[in-house]
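dumping this here so i dont lose it
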C-alpha cells in the first residue's frame, strides 16, 4: 500500500520540484537584471515568483493554450517583481528608521492603481496592474510569516492583522480585476 502511495506521488513531486527549480532560476535572473544582492530581496522575489506561478495557473483551463498561459506569466514577471520591491522603497526615501511604515507596507498604492484603472478595458494594463498587486501582496504576506514589525502600529497582533489583511486583499483583488478583464476580451 505504501509503495502505491509513493508511486502515485512521484509525478506530482517531480513536477513541483521542476516548478521550484524554474522559479529559483528565474529569481536569480531577475535579481541579476536589477542588480539585487540582498538575501531578503531574494526571498521576497522568490515568494512572489512562486505565487505568480500559482496565480497564472488559476487562469488555465482546457480551453486556454499553454502559449497564452506562458505569455501571461512572462508579461507578469517584471510587474510582479516590482510589486515585491515596492514595500522596501521606504528605505530609499526615508531611511531604515522608517522601514515598514504602514503606507508602504499596505496595499494603498495598489488600491489607488485599481481605482484609476477600473475604466481601462485593455487587457495588458490589467495584467501589469494585477501582477504588481500580486507581488505587493506576496511581500506583505511573507512579512507576516517573518513576524515583521510595522511602524506606528502597536503590538504583534495588530501588525500581523495589518499585513495579512492588506496582503490578502492585494492578491484577491488582483485576481478579481484580471478575471474581470479576461471576460471582456
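and the seq i came up w/
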Amino acid at each position: 500500500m505504501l509503495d502505491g502511495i509513493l508511486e502515485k506521488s512521484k509525478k506530482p513531486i517531480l513536477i513541483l520540484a521542476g516548478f521550484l527549480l524554474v522559479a529559483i532560476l528565474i529569481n536569480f535572473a531577475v535579481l541579476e537584471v536589477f542588480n539585487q544582492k540582498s538575501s531578503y530581496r531574494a526571498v521576497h522575489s522568490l515568494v512572489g515568483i512562486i505565487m505568480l506561478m500559482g496565480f497564472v495557473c488559476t487562469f488555465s483551463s482546457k480551453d486556454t493554450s499553454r502559449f497564452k498561459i506562458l505569455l501571461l506569466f512572462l508579461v507578469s514577471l517584471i510587474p510582479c517583481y516590482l510589486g515585491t520591491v515596492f514595500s522596501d522603497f521606504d528605505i530609499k526615501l526615508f531611511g531604515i528608521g522608517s522601514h515598514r511604515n504602514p503606507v508602504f507596507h499596505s496595499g494603498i498604492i495598489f488600491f489607488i492603481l485599481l481605482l484609476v484603472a477600473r475604466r481601462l478595458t485593455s487587457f495588458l494594463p490589467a495584467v501589469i496592474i494585477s501582477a504588481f498587486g500580486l507581488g505587493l501582496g506576496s511581500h506583505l504576506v511573507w512579512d507576516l510569516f517573518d513576524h515583521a514589525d510595522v511602524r506606528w502600529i502597536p503590538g504583534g497582533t495588530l501588525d500581523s492583522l495589518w499585513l495579512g489583511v492588506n496582503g490578502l486583499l492585494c492578491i484577491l483583488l488582483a485576481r478579481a480585476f484580471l478575471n474581470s478583464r479576461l471576460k471582456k476580451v
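The first helix runs from residue 2 to 33.
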